[in-house]
Amino acid sequence: MTIRTRFAPSPTGLLHIGNARAALFNFLFARHHGGEFLLRIEDTDRERSTQQAVDVIFDGLAWMGITADETPVFQSTRQPRHTEVALELLEKGLAYKCYCTPEELKQMREDAMANGKPPRYNGMWRDRDPSEAPAGAPYAVRIKAPREGETVIEDLVQGEVRVANAELDDMIILRSDGTPTYQHAVVVDDHDMDITHVIRGDDHLTNTFRQAMIYRAMGWDLPRFAHLPLIHGPDGAKLSKRHGAQSVVEFRDEGYLPEALCNYLLRLGWGHGDAEILSREEQIKLFDLDGVGRSPSRMDYAKLLHINAVWMRQADDERLTNDVMDRLKAVEGVSTDDTVRARVLALMPGLKERARTLVELADSAAFLGRHVPLSFNAKAEKILTSEARTILDGLARELAAVEDFTPENIDAALRRFAEAGEHKLGQVAQPVRAAVTGSNTSPGIDATLAALGKDETLARIGAVLHG
């Protein structure tokens, strides 16, 4: 048997982090077992489904490196097949036509609640003679739920889960307007797509018992189910905007690398010993459902930030430079020409050691594209005393004499100048750092000056001395 999993989001909003984790787990499980991962867009809610939301799903999955093995299926295109199965159940006597009006259904719910019972359909049309049906009246198609015994699901995460069949009502599978319900469509699609494992959030657990009725009525094998605990906020409450980013797009915009987010999501509810930083290859090798816990996971933004910093330090300098340059285009007063790009690339080994996100990285690199005279932060202003300016005046002459402006030669020049003037190295490095960056922090000053180049370095020091 070839294992086949699927990710089946509804295109009605952003790609939530919980859905993204479900997609990742489905993808890794299929890859781990040499199987296939599929994508189905459940767009039957035509009023709320939008092309923009579809694009967000595709873009988010592509950014995360999650690729389907077949062309995505759009559920809305399969309505004739959903109807066909519903009518087959009707023909077999396993479903029936329900002519209840909205008013009758409302009264039914109110009566049940008044008697302390769940607001459930009472089976009014289940065993009535079709001849009693009002002529030409619209009808829904309901499946006949089993009334005796219980339904048992052997869940691969939750373990054995049971529900008494008496708790299940005759749910609608085909509405009176001829459209299939979600519960019905998802079963037909999963069966026709040969899905062997349904891995989804445990908010779908109750749906599973209802969907099992359709599988069994059609004589189809049930897939194996695995219901993942939900992701909560750091305080244990449902994840919401007040906790921070919730969607894949938000994390991308806030400067997280896709491999860092995937790495974090994998470890959010799944574990393998003390393994923390895992490449995609390692994830595929190690991931299986027996490592998924049963308790809800708590989003830990500080942990994610730490993991992102680790991946930033491992990332390719060219790739990071491209991202930084894209972000700097939106920053006023910063050039993004080839000269600036070359400076960013040259200094990237030092810049990425200090940044935790791409946003921080772009912020720390912005000085490389600013024009003289620079603006200075409060700490840089404090460093640039009259004494510091005197040091800068002498240092400028020392640096002008350096022919090959490499970090090594710059470092030697700084040390020569400090020693000759009986200064500590910091007394020389801090003023020049403030002068050329407008800040009190940067990567190593020798690498920083080398990235700027001799002409730009001397121009920036000169602007401080003569501004």
Shape: elongated
Overall average pLDDT: 95
Task: Outline the low-pLDDT stretches.
Answer: none
Estimated share of beta-strand residues? 5-15%
In angstroms, what is the radius of gyration? 32 Å
Major sheet: arrangement of strands: 1-2-3
Helix content: 40-55%
Quantity of strands, as a count: 12
Could you say which structural class the secondary elements and strand pairing correspond to?
A: mainly alpha
Oligomer: single chain
Question: What does the model show?
Answer:
The protein is mainly alpha-helical. It contains 19 helices and 12 strands. A 3-stranded parallel sheet has the order 1-2-3, with helices on one face. Strands 4-5-8 form a 3-stranded antiparallel sheet. It has a two-stranded antiparallel sheet with strand order 6-7. Helix 8 (258-267) crosses helix 10 and helix 12 (338-354) packs antiparallel against helix 18. The model has no long low-confidence stretch (mean pLDDT 95).
In short:
48% of the residues lie in helices and 10% in strands. The protein is mainly alpha-helical. The strands form five sheets. Strands 1-2-3 form a three-stranded parallel beta sheet, covered by helices on one side. A three-stranded antiparallel beta sheet has the order 4-5-8.
What is the topological layout?
Blueprint: E1 4-7, H1 17-32, E2 36-41, H2 51-64, E3 73-74, H3 79-91, E4 95-98, H4 102-114, E5 140-143, E6 150-155, E7 159-164, E8 172-174, H5 182-192, E9 197-201, H6 205-218, E10 224-228, E11 231-232, H7 248-253, H8 258-267, H9 280-286, E12 297-298, H10 301-314, H11 317-328, H12 338-354, H13 358-365, H14 378-383, H15 386-400, H16 407-420, H17 425-437, H18 445-452, H19 454-466
Parallel strand pairs: 1-2, 2-3, 9-10, 11-12
Antiparallel strand pairs: 4-5, 5-8, 6-7
